[in-house]
Amino acid sequence: MRNAKQWVIAALAAVAGFALVNFGNIASSIVVMVLAVVFLLVLMTPVLYPSSLSDIGSGACGTTRPDASRNQATERSVPLVYWRPGCIFCLRLRVALLLRGKKAVWTSIRQDPAAAARVRSVNDGNETVPTVFAGSEHRTNPNPSWVLAQFV
After folding, report:
1. Sequence-ordered strand ranges (E) for 73-124
2. Residue 126 confidence (pLDDT) above 90
3. What whole-number distance in Å separates Cα of residue 82 and Cα of residue 89?
4. pTM higher than 0.85, yes or no?
């Protein structure tokens, strides 16, 4: 997340410089800056992602069982994507998938400790995202074309 914040600050500085050089007055520069901030806020928040499902849910008598995300991905034969808000690579994947991305099952590892544990289990203890599970395969930060090929 720290790395993403550094990119946001750099992007805002670049937009500010561009606005001042090309528009020449402070008022238009402020408008451009506000639009840039709103755009970056939308990109860095979960707005572009479908609602996140839990990875592990509660079964009868307080037992845990695989829940919404794993079952739904299996039933619909779509990839299960583990992601984190603010992750530039997750955003790249989401944008590259376009409308198909809405069909995939998205689970935020920030909201679900079980999802974070599953990601760590396949990434040598690291919470590297996006991690995509499709059938019995998984890939970390996969090429979007591979993810598109996983839709049946």
Report:
1. 80-83, 105-108
2. yes
3. 12
4. no
